[in-house]
Write a structure and sequence with these properties.
single chain; alpha+beta; two-stranded antiparallel ribbon; 4 helices; 15 strands; 13-stranded antiparallel β-sheet; 262 residues
Length: 262
Amino acid sequence: MLRTTTFFLLLTTLFVLSPLAAQSAAERGLEIAREAELRDTGFGDFKADLRMVLRNRQGQESTRSLRTRVLEQENDGDKSLVIFDHPRDVKGTAFLTFSHTTGNDDQWLYLPALKRVKRISSSNKSGPFMGSEFAYEDISSQEVEEYTYSFLREEELDGQASFVIERVPVDKKSGYTRQEVWIDQAEYRTLKVVFYDRKGALLKTLVQSDFEQFLEQYWRPGKMSVENHQTGKSTDLLWSNFEFRNGYQDGDFDRASLARAR
């Protein structure tokens, strides 16, 4: 009887554990990315103020003030609009993004000095956004379908238990061959991203901190800092005055909204 009980216990243990044991690194990486996406679904829309601090290799700084608004889309990526308010030479510049789960994102830049809208082609998505260390493709919402994934390891980052996953852009025109992403295990927030360029060399590191929770669910970083390891330059984005559920519509994010954005 004892042998029979032991046999069934062993069989039950193997049955319970086998799905986990069979889960590949790709499946686990995708599972973590989907959980992070799920936890940020349903916010509707939000707006926020930002201060962009550009820093050169010598540590000299210049500052820009801007605003953003974001509209969540059902079954597609988010729409976002960024408007620059300061200094005078960039005041009125506006940047519109339609992120997509598949295919290329659509992006337009309005230049008030020229009074024209410039479309950002997919071949230029790796270019610097308004002289910062963020690329145009970094400004889009990061959709799960835009990458393939692999779980790398678990690791503690600044006292927070984290998953470390690798994601590889599906789009061959991306400026990155791969990214390593640290996601905290408690809230599934992206804490850190290390980017590798088209040659596979270390390019830059993004660190997100000072998180605040809104509507008792949605986390947003108060600070995003990116350091370019190849140029020595860095950019900080400091977020404030978040407001959710503003009632934005698609009409607030069409190309005509670029020129009238104030």
